[in-house]
Amino acid sequence: MLRHQNISIRHFAKKDLTAFADWVRPQLSKSGLNMAVITDTHDRTAFSRTFYGPNGYWHVQEQHWLAGELPIDWRIHLGDLVDGSEPSFLTLWRLRNIVADYEADSLPYVIAKGNHDDNDKYAERNRRFAGSFHPWVFNETVLRPMGLQVGGPTISRHGLSYFDWANVRVIVMNTSDVPVRWVSGRKNYDLKKTLAMTAGQIQELIDALQTAGSRDVLIMSHAPVMTRSGKPGLRYNGKQVHEVLRAFNAKLAGQVQFGEHGDFGGQATFDFAQTNGTIIAAVAGHWHTEEDFRINGIHYSLLNCSALMGRLHGLTTNYNRKWNRLINTPSEYSGYVVAVEPQSRRLKLFGYGAASPLRQFEY
């Protein structure tokens, strides 16, 4: 096991994460897939003792340190690396710092795109939506180095990525798959408010499922495609993605229709008759809470946000208000070790900080 002694993390975090690692280590299967996962760091330069700030980057470094203390196979960030609420040069600087931390290790990583990562939160305050990133910024800053890793994931044209580990395939979807155009100097969509997957990416998802063979499949993304109430979690095509996952479990062949919308319409063809695996679960962040629910046989697990959400801040979710999260304490952060155990066919989510210690499910 590599121990990353060159990574400097805060004293209280090192003490807390050491205790977490000592508790988790004997519970991890030697034959399982173990991933260090965080989501929604909302990193920014502006400091706050109650809500978001540069500690988002510190949480990434602390995940890095923890990954060196455990038999971790992959590091995962499920999006909203940055808050996207500052001038573009500051947000880009923060984004590059986070990617540099993932690049500084031989441990493979995957980063999903979040709805804050194109700096549209800052652009919303400007009449002409100035400061919003073009998609090439995330593609060049995050996806390009991610794709150049030795033993890294396969990355599609629409930002979907996947990798195989033994008899498991992990597919990380892009729920900010939005065609961008500038109309009269203004962006056609506000990506912070438009969660979506295009027909093109869903066909790429189908292709990744069709070539999974006998592998079971863990789905991951920034935003969940469905909510507990059974409604779509995306503005465009969330329900259709859910139906594709159902079809994979049922080993069906056919077509999925997306309607006539100019950007999100179309159709995709699938044939899962030659596959033998099942959907393990769909793991996501975005909602800044923890939830587990099952819809039509598909299990959804939501992970809490890494970013600080103090109890008295107006935007804090009820889940995080109950934690009474305080800076410079373990409740400041939230993160997970997600373990897939093929032999026992169990999914385990070990949490540290403002997270449940253990959630486990059979698949």
Layout of SSEs?
Blueprint: H1 11-24, E1 33-38, H2 55-67, E2 74-77, H3 88-103, E3 109-111, H4 120-123, H5 135-147, E4 154-155, E5 161-165, E6 168-172, E7 182-183, E8 186-187, H6 199-210, E9 216-221, H7 238-250, E10 253-259, E11 266-271, E12 279-284, E13 291-295, E14 298-302, H8 318-323, E15 334-341, E16 346-353, E17 358-362
EC number: 3.1.-.-
InterPro entries: Calcineurin-like_PHP, Metallo-depent_PP-like
GO molecular function: hydrolase activity
In short:
The chain has 363 residues and is an alpha/beta fold.
Features:
363 residues; seven-stranded mixed β-sheet; alpha/beta; 23% strand; six-stranded mixed β-sheet
Strand order of the largest sheet: 4-5-6-9-12-14-13
The sequence of SSEs as H and E is HEHEHEHHEEEEEHEHEEEEEHEEE
Please give the number of β-strands: 17
Uncertain segments are: none
Distance separating the two termini? 29 Å
**Percent helix range:** 25-40%
Structural class: alpha/beta
Computed Rg:
19 Å
pLDDT averaged over residues: 96
Largest sheet: 7 strands, mixed
- Which overall shape is indicated by the principal axes computed on the Cα atoms? globular
Number of helices: 8
